[in-house]
Amino acid sequence: MAQHYHISSLLLLAFLNIFFIHGNISSATARHLLETPVPEIPKPELPKVPALPKFEIPTVPKPELPTIPKPEIPAVPKPELPTFPKPELPTLSKPKIPIMPKPEIPAMPKLEFPPLKKSEIPAVPKTEVPPSSEARIFNKGVQNQKN
């Protein structure tokens, strides 16, 4: 059944088991275990192993590889390109362009404009609005706050 579980879950269960088993041992039991003498167990004598003969590796003669002759590649002659004579281009005469006379531009007389009069903005007289009763109350409140 264990093959169906992941190894991490099995390790967790093993850790928890060891933790709970360790928790059951009291300090008195642990001290008692430390104070009790442990009987010495005699060491068994090991049988002598006979010496084995040294194994020698036989030398194998190095095989000689047959020499393969290099294949001779026949020399391929370089192809000679035929030389063509350089073509001569016929010389062409320069085309003559007839000279055109420059047209004369008539001089334009400078136009003079009459000076413009500066327009004056009429001054608007300041009109006084008679204060209403609400404005008087508001103005008195503002004046009281300033004082």
From TrEMBL:
* Cleaved signal peptide residues: 1-30
Source superkingdom = Eukaryota
Gene name of the record: LOC102593586
Q: What's the protein here called? A: Gamma-gliadin
Which species is the source of this protein? Answer: Solanum tuberosum
* Skewed-composition ranges (Pro residues): 60-88
Q: Where is this region: Disordered?
A: 60-98, 119-147
Keywords, ordered alphabetically: Signal
Q: Does the keyword Chloroplast apply?
A: no
